[in-house]
Amino acid sequence: MTLNKNNLQDNKNCIILASGNGSNALNIINYFLTSKKNKGINSINIVAVVSNVATAPVIEKVKKLTTFIPVFVIPFNNSSERAIFESELEKIIINYNIGLIVLAGFMKVLSKEFVAKFPYKIINIHPSLLPSFKGKDAIKKAYDYGVKYTGVTIHYVTEEVDSGPIILQEVVKIEESDNILSLEAKIHKVEHEIYPIALEMLANKTHKV
Ligand code: GRF
To answer: Residue 157 C-alpha to ligand 1 middle, in angstroms?
Structure first.
């Protein structure tokens, strides 16, 4: 898949989709609320958050952090709820004039039809160096495999899971002294460092795919 300038992002209004803890969602919101770059014309605007899990900690965390960003809960716990979830999400995307859909720990797969409606507008973070260790439990898969280096990938979402064009990657070395918990902590630290940077790259059109 190739990217040309016509595909690039002009609309900087973002929606974040998250299913669980929400550390990446919180980090991105914090970054763009506090960053001086937020005052620039090319900045990202986080305009809404959607969770598919009514009990997800991310919901209360975002509400506690700011009242300026609405948080929507649209149940999507099994595949029978996907169509309604996507239809409600699409309404929010239109109502809020969203240009970029940011998956941050969103643990469901969007349909091919939905993805096809938003080419180069859906971004995901994955805790491995894709194309290695796609799918769930990527940190553990890499650790169990015994690789010496793993990392974090930010990529566009395409029809095939964890396979879209890569925007940004960062390597994490697995030391002899690491265990699964220390590796998870290292991965999350890198995630928090590079996801906002990747969004800035998109906003400023400085990325190459
Ligand atoms: C992160 O490791 C992310 O890479 C993966 O899901 C996890 C979400 O963590 N897609 P959090 O909810 O952002 O804390």
So the answer is: 15
Nearest to 18 by CA among 55, 64, 44: 55
Q: Locate the ligand 1 atom nearest the alpha carbon of residue 27 and give its number.
A: 13
Measuring CA to CA, how many Å separate 120 from each of 61, 78, 190, 202?
28, 26, 23, 10
Residue ranges of domains in the chain: 1-119, 125-209
Q: Which of 94, 165, 78 is nearest to 130 (CA)?
A: 165
- If one residue of 16, 24, 133 were mutated to test the ligand 1 pocket, choosing by the most ligand atoms within 8 A of its CB, it would be 24
Interval between CA 151 and ligand 1 midpoint (Å): 13
Best of 50, 191, 194 for a ligand 1 pocket test (most atoms within 8 Å of beta carbon): 191
CATH number 2.30.30.280 is the correct assignment for the domain at 1-119: no
- Its pTM stands at 0.93
Tell me, in angstroms, the distance from the centre of ligand 1 to residue 6's CA.
30
Q: Give the residue numbers marked as catalytic.
A: 126
Query: Under the phi-then-psi rule, with left for phi > 0, alpha for psi from -120 to 50, and beta for the rest, what region is 162?
Result: left
- pLDDT tens across the length of the chain (209 residues): 444 444 446 789 999 999 999 999 999 999 998 765 555 556 889 999 999 999 999 999 999 999 999 999 999 999 999 999 999 999 999 999 999 999 999 999 999 999 999 999 999 999 999 999 999 999 999 999 999 999 999 999 999 999 999 999 999 999 999 999 999 999 999 999 999 999 999 988 777 66
CATH of 125-209, one of 2.30.30.110, 2.60.40.1180, 2.40.160.40, 3.40.50.170: 3.40.50.170
